[in-house]
Amino acid sequence: MDPGIEPKEQMMQAKPGRLVDQVLAELQTGIIKGDIPPGSKINEQDIAERFGISRGPAREALLTLERQRLVVRAPHIGARVARLSVDELNELYQLRSVLEAMACELAAKRISKAQLTNLRELIDNQQVALASDDPYFQQQGDVDFHYQIIQASGNRHLQETLMGGLYHLLRMYRFQTSSRKRPVKAIAEHRVIVDAIAQGDGELAALLMRRHIEHGRISTEYQLKAMQQADSLSSLNE
To answer: Terminus-to-terminus CA distance in the chain, angstroms?
Structure first.
């Protein structure tokens, strides 16, 4: 059986929620964190054996991973865990920039007082986590910030496009290429974006979000290239 796919009999135990959702969540986390290695083979049988489930739920989970592009399928090769790619990274961030700028414009018109309070509290929590060297910001905090703005946009189709699929792939890139320098600037950028939304200035909020995402793209691309170069040198030395 491939790396990262091991038996999990405890899935057979009764738990709340749909079985396929539990399986999917574990597979997503494993792929995003790199515990299930990029390029590794993954199929219905592997999933069924790992979680001790039938092939029906395993097939459904695998199809969802393919829709989210965490798993890719090629003729004569089968399904494999997605590999990080600089070209795909840039395409993802281009799309994200357009859609999240739109989310900011809508949020500036529609955000509730409670949503605005939650955003400001989140940023304060991010600052505390960063000061205490808590990995929360790197792993979830920045994503949570974007989630909340997208939710505040009130546009269901925008929410489904970004949170239903795109963000799982973006999280994989961010998690596996994290930088310790970027969060300091990112939190400051979060604050000015929220200030613009609070003032109802959607145009400014959208501009600031596009700049924020571009800064993130540059940082992530740099880290990805450095990681790929290190992997290449390691392969040569083996």
So the answer is: 24
Which pair of structure tokens corresponds to residue 1?
Answer: 């059986």
- 216 CB-near residues (< 8 Å, 6+ apart): 93, 174, 182, 186
- pLDDT band for position 232 (50/70/90)? confident
Query: Given its phi and psi angles, is residue 76 left (phi above 0), alpha (psi -120 to 50 degrees) or beta?
Result: left
**Tell me: the pLDDT tens digits for 119-169?**
999 999 888 887 777 655 455 556 788 999 999 999 999 998 888 778 888
Q: Which two tokens stand for residue 86?
A: 């600089």
Cβ-Cβ contacts under 8 Å for 47 (sequence gap 6 or more): 5, 23, 27, 53, 58, 61, 62
pTM: 0.81
Bridge partners for 78 per DSSP: 74
In angstroms, the CA 161 to CA 98 distance is: 12
Nearest Cα neighbor of 205 from 186, 187, 190, 185 is 190
CB 175: neighbour CB atoms within 10 A? 17
As given in the structure block, the two tokens for residue 32 are 């995003």
